[in-house]
Design brief:
about 60% helix; 32 helices; about 650 residues; mainly alpha; DNA-binding; six-stranded mixed beta sheet; single chain
DNA sequence: TAGCGAATAC
């Protein structure tokens, strides 16, 4: 039995006129003859005020026109728009024989209210009541299927539309592409796309987004290139897709190309571009984009400013982020989240927690992202007890069930300060669904830092049993066993990784000098100034050793002798980037380096000394957080 | 004589 009951339909949906001629369907047009135009125009004038609408509704009842299908239609729509879904539902159910327009309006209402199952249920009920569907109502129910997501229902609707001999309406087709895309059925999405007679810019944008969602970058580009002219939305979808797939520079190139073609970017475009900038950590470029936004008369709404705050904090300029935040007239939970997460990223734990408290004072309810930021702040600041207090308050005070990320934060909080048994017990107490490889990896890293092999081995065992191990997990396991001197285990995980065809993500650091981003891999020899870079590095090695630096050779993993290990450490990508920064910028200029992986202990110790010797501020963003090095110290206070 | 389209941050 199907989930949905629909009458067979003989009209052609593609032409979209609903002829109401089918013999089995009840024809509910009798009330349609009357139309209370006075009430309708009154409703339209007062549609923003619930009280007024209610009183006009009362007037219609007095006049006896409350069953006029046009009046009911208008009322249901307005009630839904005013978020009064109860009014709308009640009215709908008191209406005799609601027609397809009325069903559509309430289904839409349920969708905008987030009640997707209710929307799908109502559509099924429409079938039971033999009301003929049309392309509008099908589009509406498919919207619910997309958002739920409900693949089976969506397929059933698709099947029924096809079986009924209808041509495929274009809006229906667009929603089907979206549905299949969202439900990992990209091939089906493509089949629907290929059936659309006119594959215009909108259809292509939907298809592109589906491809991008599944990492099919080249396929998306092909769809994009199939268009003669692309509009702002299509370009934006392109930039967004590239950025989401980690193709940051390509995304920025597209942004430039868009300008060359004379297509104007809008707020959404900039939000995508800012995301690329923030991931790259390119501060100069970001500042330029920010200025350019003013030139383009961008509306600085909350999402845009949130993106700017995020961009400045991720590019290392937390002060600018703070200024933007302070200037915001209206701050919502997302604005606070951006700022709290930014402060946490910079290890400004006290400030992050203060801001969280201020937010509560302002009566703004925190959401699950707020707690990720706040707990991260606790972790970076070594604030164990406060972390626990806040973690517990999530459910008791704010009614938010902790997710896996929050549990991860707690494990981190305990791990960083060396309370490893407690961290492990915390994991043990959680259900398996709350434990993931990331969490175990982080704890194993803490075990390694605190040299606790006992807990470490238990964690390592659990991690190696994890089904979703990525290159980071293998490397972590290998590093852990190497740090214990158990080379055979270390080698075993390396081998497993190679055999599984899993590639190690190479360490990569970048630094922006004169608006150009210079990237360095570990031991990189490709840079045109490599000679001077390595010369500087040698000098730094010598000077830092005089200051007491001694290479922590156990962090280098391979089973090689100490001299070789020292060499492997000496050319870590962040050191190359810093050396290049030192030779290519004026004295006292702050150096900002972005690294894709976590910084190692050895580089951390050495950079502290480099900052001291050269009297430079050095800001390093690693995968986890910011490190501000100055005069021999790091802002992370060696917790990271 | 009524109602559908694509891209947004933490």
């Amino acid at each position: 039995m199907g989930i949905l009951v629909l009458p067979s339909v003989t009209t052609n949906l593609y032409n979209s006129s609903n002829s109401y001629t089918h013999s089995k369907a009840k024809i509910n047009n009798d009330q349609n003859i009357r139309r209370d135009t006075d009430i309708i125009s009154l409703l339209q004038q007062n549609r923003k005020n619930l009280k007024h609408v209610e009183s006009i509704h009362g007037r219609a009842i007095k006049k006896g026109t409350e069953q006029d299908s046009f009046v009911v239609f208008e009322l249901v729509r307005i009630y839904c728009k005013l978020k009064s879904i109860d009014h709308a539902t009640k009215l709908f159910h008191s209406t005799h024989n609601p027609n397809v327009y009325l069903y559509t309006s309430l289904i839409d209402g349920f969708v905008s209210f987030g009640s997707y199952s209710a929307a799908i249920g109502l559509y099924g009920q429409m079938g039971h009541n033999n009301v003929l569907p049309d392309s509008y109502v099908v589009t509406s129910v498919l919207k619910a299927c997309v958002l739920q997501p409900a693949l089976r229902c969506g397929r059933e609707v698709h099947g029924q539309v096809l079986k009924s001999g209808l041509g495929l309406d274009r809006s229906v087709a667009l929603k089907l592409i979206e549905l299949y895309g969202k439900c990992d059925e990209v091939e089906d999405a493509r089949k629907v796309f290929d059936k659309i007679p006119e594959r215009d810019v909108v259809a292509r944008t939907v298809m592109m987004a589906s491809y991008f969602d599944h990492g099919m970058v080249e396929e998306a580009i092909e769809v994009f290139n199939g268009l003669k002219t692309q509009d702002t939305v299509c370009w934006t979808a392109m930039i967004d897709g590239l950025v989401r797939n980690g193709e940051l520079n390509r995304g920025l190139e597209m942004f430039r190309e868009m300008q060359v073609k004379g297509v104007e970017p809008n707020e959404v475009t900039f939000v995508c571009v800012l995301s690329a900038c923030s991931q790259l950590g390119a501060l100069e470029l970001s500042r330029w984009i920010h200025m350019y936004m003013h030139k383009c008369n961008v509306k600085f709404n909350q999402i845009v400013v949130g993106a700017l705050i995020n961009m400045y904090s991720r590019c290392g300029d937390i002060d600018e982020a703070q200024l933007l935040f302070d200037d915001m007239k209206v701050k919502d939970v997302s604005s606070y989240n951006s700022m709290i997460c930014g402060l946490a990223l910079h290890g400004m734990s006290t400030e992050a927690i203060e801001l969280f408290r201020e937010m509560l004072k302002q009566g703004i309810s925190p959401n699950s992202i707020t707690f990720v930021g706040v707990l991260n702040a606790c972790s970076h600041g070594g604030l164990v007890e406060l972390g626990f207090e806040i973690f517990q308050s999530m459910e008791t005070l704010h009614g938010i069930k902790p997710h896996i990320e929050h549990h991860g934060c707690m494990v981190d909080i305990l791990g960083r300060v060396g309370r490893l048994e407690e961290a492990y017990n915390f994991i043990e107490r959680m259900g398996a669904q709350h434990v993931d490889d990331k969490m175990l990896c982080a704890l194993l890293s803490s075990c390694k830092i605190h040299r606790n092999s006992e807990v470490g081995e238990q964690v390592a065992k659990r991690l190696s049993e994890c089904s979703k191990m990525d290159s980071g997990s293998y490397i972590m396991l290998s590093n852990f066993y190497a740090s214990l001197g158990r080379w055979n285990f270390a080698a075993e995980f390396r081998e497993k990784m190679e055999k599984g065809g899993i590639l190690k993500e190479p360490g990569c650091s970048s630094i922006e000098v004169n608006n150009v981003i210079h990237e360095f891999l570990s031991g990189d020899l490709k840079h045109h100034e490599r000679r001077s870079i390595y010369q500087k590095l040698e000098e730094l090695n010598y000077l830092t050793k005089l200051e007491g630096y001694s290479p922590a050779t156990e962090v280098a993993l391979h089973d090689i002798d100490d001299k070789q290990k020292e060499l492997a450490l000496a050319v870590h990508s962040e050191r190359l980037a810093i050396s290049y920064g030192l030779i290519s910028t004026e004295p006292h200029t702050t150096l900002r380096v972005v690294k894709n992986l976590r910084i190692c202990d050895d580089c951390h110790a050495m950079i502290k000394l480099i900052a001291k010797i050269t009297s430079r501020k050095i800001v390093v963003r690693d995968r986890n957080r910011f490190h501000h090095f100055e005069n021999g110290h790091c802002s992370c206070k060696d917790y990271w």
